[in-house]
């Protein structure tokens, strides 16, 4: 459920969110980084100890199996993945281990993901060893906490001034930041370039990885042109459309909407969706086929709100 107080904490102060929607895979062994380097789209070998990056895991055809965040800790690498996919991903990745000194375990039951976001997040988490990761265009921090002590950890954060809020509230900030979510705005049919992931999750200077040939071919030979692209839409007044609604122009279907929310900051309904590349220019007006009334959406540059200058 959306929390107005939680939204204000996220955008004006500091809010903590228990990421029950996320699973955790732990990769150990001396070859853990080099093994992941050959599988994931980003340059994980370049991560310093304590560093984090976004990445994607692709099929050989360049379609997404999942997106993920990669945390390089002292003695292991933690992969932050969609919770519903954690077990299947662990089994799939484990099947790709041969002679490498690496092991992968699903620690989703034993470990919880806790995040703190907001302009005052740095002060709240000072000294706790949380990893900086500004995923939503706000100062943000992540901790992987043993489930046995999660309540104590959360109480410590709230005692420091973090206000607990909901996943639904965080999702509004996610959409405002223009950050697509896997299983919502991306799926097994998505090419990362369609979702704009090249800006944060793909390295074009690292060595080979699964699906690289497709990404390179589209980027260098095709000039980065894909059939459809993720865009932001500022909606006209009316009910919020659901994901999957058709986007059209002059009676022609040109795309699909994937996420929508009412944004207190924009004071309007906003949405993410994929549209044909000929309709991605800011200011383009599209019809959103919804019942009982038809809405319109104006293509808007992402993110909807630029907040990165807030906080330290």
Question: How is this fold's topology laid out?
Answer:
Elements: H1 4-12, E1 15-18, E2 22-28, H2 32-37, E3 51-58, E4 64-72, E5 77-82, H3 86-94, E6 103-106, E7 111-117, H4 121-125, E8 131-132, E9 140-146, H5 150-159, E10 163-164, H6 167-176, H7 212-221, E11 228-235, E12 246-249, E13 252-263, E14 268-276, E15 285-288, E16 295-300
Parallel strand pairs: 1-10
Antiparallel strand pairs: 1-7, 2-5, 2-6, 3-4, 4-5, 7-9, 8-9, 11-14, 11-16, 12-13, 12-15, 13-14, 15-16
Helix pairs in contact: 1-6
Give an account of the 3D structure.
The structure is a single chain. With about 300 residues, this protein is of the alpha+beta class. It folds into 2 domains: about 5-175, 2-Layer Sandwich (Gyrase A, domain 2), CATH 3.30.1360.120; about 190-300, Aminomethyltransferase beta-barrel domains (Elongation Factor Tu (Ef-tu), domain 3), CATH 2.40.30. The protein has 7 helices and 16 strands. The protein has helices at about 5-10, 30-35, 85-95, 120-125, 150-160, 165-175, 210-220; strands spanning about 15-20, 20-30, 50-60, 65-70, 75-80, 105, 110-115, 130, 140-145, 165, 230-235, 245-250, 250-265, 270-275, 285-290, 295-300. A hairpin with a 7-residue loop joins strand 8 and strand 9 (about 140-145). The mean pLDDT is about 95.
């Amino acid at each position: 459920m959306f929390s107005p107080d939680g939204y204000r904490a996220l955008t004006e102060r500091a809010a903590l969110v228990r990421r029950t929607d996320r699973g955790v895979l732990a990769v150990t062994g001396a070859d853990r980084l080099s093994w992941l380097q050959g599988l994931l789209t980003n340059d994980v070998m370049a991560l310093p100890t304590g560093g984090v990056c976004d990445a994607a895991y692709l099929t050989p055809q360049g379609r997404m199996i999942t997106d993920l965040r990669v945390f390089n800790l002292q003695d292991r690498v933690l992969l932050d993945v969609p919770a519903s996919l954690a077990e299947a991903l662990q089994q799939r990745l484990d099947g790709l281990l041969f002679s490498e000194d690496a092991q992968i375990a699903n620690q989703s039951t034993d470990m919880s993901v806790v995040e703190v976001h907001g302009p005052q997040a740095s002060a709240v988490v000072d000294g706790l060893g949380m990893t900086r990761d500004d995923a939503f265009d706000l100062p943000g921090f992540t901790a992987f906490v043993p489930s046995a002590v999660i309540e104590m950890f959360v109480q410590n954060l709230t005692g420091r001034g973090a206000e607990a809020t909901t996943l639904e509230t965080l999702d509004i900030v996610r959409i405002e930041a223009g950050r697509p979510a896997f299983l919502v705005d991306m799926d097994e049919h998505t090419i990362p370039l369609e979702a704009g992931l090249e800006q944060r999750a793909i390295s074009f200077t690292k060595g080979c990885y699964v699906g690289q040939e497709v990404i390179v071919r589209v980027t260098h030979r095709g000039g980065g042109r894909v059939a459809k692209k993720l865009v932001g839409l500022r909606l006209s007044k009316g009910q919020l459309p659901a994901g999957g609604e058709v986007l059209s122009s002059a009676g022609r279907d040109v795309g699909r909407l994937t996420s929508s929310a009412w944004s207190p900051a924009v004071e309007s309904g906003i949405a993410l969706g994929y549209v044909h590349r000929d309709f991605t220019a800011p200011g383009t007006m599209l019809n959103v086929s919804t019942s009982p009334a038809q809405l319109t959406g104006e293509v808007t540059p992402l993110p909807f709100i630029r907040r990165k200058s807030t906080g330290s």
